[in-house]
């Protein structure tokens, strides 16, 4: 069976010049083959449609990205301008396999091509569900656990657990195969968290894979506006306080904000970065004086690129606190070609990733005969 996929790819290449329709047919056959060959849980990741191709806006600073330039963040003054809101939408909850529910707000028809962000899932995973052994190439994933616990194990022998308030930063690079399995909590409560997929700069697509756990205790907490606003500085900077460094290769800021009734936040963000807020609880007023929107929980608030800061507040008479995350990232000037957990820059690279995975080569060597311990909890 390992020879079938290379054979199909060769035939595809040979026929390409002669008949585009035949090529499409064979590409579909490869898709069908992968769906049959891969474990059922991985098939969930694979799109039902063919490969989608998108181009992100150009960024003149791209070459300097790899040396991790300090993002330009202007101090807040009377001259500062607030970013306008481009879009607000509810992340609708849907079933994702047995026992998992997901609110996906990036990587759907509502919000694509929002470089460097590929996907954002707000997940709730109960008993008997999880993500057993599956591969990745070409992206980073940031997992932020809000409640419960998630174990992880990869084919290089790394193992660990993240608990409430902890994060895991995973760089897939040229190849990782791992399992992500939620706990079965004694009280039956589900495991809730956020998983963000971030694109890797094309020069780093084939870098060595890497993990970095960030414990809740390592995250600085900023209090402002007479303690009515609390900001967990997971990644980036808020009110002069810096997060732990070197979490991910692609520059991303991630702040977890709680605002009590009567509180107001002005948060400076790097110039030119894409940014959004995702609401977790309460009602937040986003925007400035002349243009505001009140947003309830589980919405994605997408900001325009122009402007120095974002503003958020909760009225005096609100009956509860509001909580949301603010996420900002350096846009990458590159094409995104994604096929499930393989995120590259061209169709050829995606086929190569599938081939490398199937043949356990070019970064997937350790996947040969590897099976995680934690994935065995879930029969598939
Ligand atoms: Co994964």
Task: Write structural notes for this entry.
With 380 residues, the chain is mainly beta. It has two domains: 82 residues, no CATH class; 265 residues, Jelly Rolls (Sandwich). Helix content is 13%, strand content 40%. It contains four helices and 27 strands. It has a seven-stranded antiparallel sheet with strand order 2-23-20-25-18-15-14, with no helix packed on it. The radius of gyration is 21 Å and the shape is globular. About 15% of the residues have low confidence. The protein binds cobalt (II) ion. The site of cobalt (II) ion has 6 residues, from strand 6 and strand 11.
Q: What's this, in brief?
A:
Helix content is 13%, strand content 40%.
């Amino acid at each position: 069976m390992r020879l079938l996929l290379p054979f199909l790819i060769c035939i595809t290449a040979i026929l390409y010049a002669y008949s585009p329709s035949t090529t499409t047919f064979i590409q579909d056959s490869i898709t069908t083959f992968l769906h049959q060959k891969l474990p059922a849980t991985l098939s969930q990741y694979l799109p039902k449609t063919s490969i989608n191709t998108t181009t992100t806006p150009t960024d003149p600073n791209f070459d300097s990205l790899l040396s991790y330039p300090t993002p330009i963040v202007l101090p807040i003054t009377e001259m500062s301008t607030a970013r306008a809101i481009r879009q607000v939408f509810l992340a609708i909850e849907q079933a994702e396999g047995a026992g998992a529910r997901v609110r996906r707000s990036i990587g759907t028809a509502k919000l694509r091509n929002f470089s460097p962000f590929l996907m954002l899932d707000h997940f709730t995973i109960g008993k008997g569900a999880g993500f057993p052994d599956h591969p990745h190439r070409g992206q980073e994933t940031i997992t932020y656990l809000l409640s419960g616990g998630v174990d992880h194990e990869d084919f290089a022998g790394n193992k660990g657990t993240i608990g409430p308030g902890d994060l895991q930063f995973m760089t897939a690079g040229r190849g990782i195969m791992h399992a992500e399995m939620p706990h079965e909590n004694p009280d039956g409560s589900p495991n809730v968290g956020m998983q963000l997929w971030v694109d890797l700069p094309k020069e780093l697509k084939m870098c060595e894979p890497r993990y970095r756990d960030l414990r809740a205790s390592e995250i600085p907490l900023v209090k402002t506006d007479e303690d009515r606003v609390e900001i967990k500085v997971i990644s980036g900077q808020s009110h002069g306080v810096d997060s732990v460094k070197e979490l991910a290769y692609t520059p991303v800021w991630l702040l977890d904000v709680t605002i009590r009734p009567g509180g107001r936040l002005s948060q400076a963000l790097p110039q030119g970065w894409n940014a959004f807020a995702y609401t977790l609880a309460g009602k937040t007023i986003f925007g400035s004086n002349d243009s505001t929107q009140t947003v309830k929980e589980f919405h994605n608030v997408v900001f325009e690129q122009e402007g120095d800061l974002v503003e958020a507040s909760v009225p005096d008479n609100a009956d509860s606190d509001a909580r949301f995350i603010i996420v900002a990232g350096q846009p990458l000037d590159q094409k995104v070609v994604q096929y499930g957990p393989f995120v590259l820059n061209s169709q050829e690279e995606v086929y190569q990733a599938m081939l490398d995975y199937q043949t356990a080569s070019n970064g997937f060597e350790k996947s040969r005969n590897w099976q995680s311990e934690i994935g065995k909890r879930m029969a598939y």
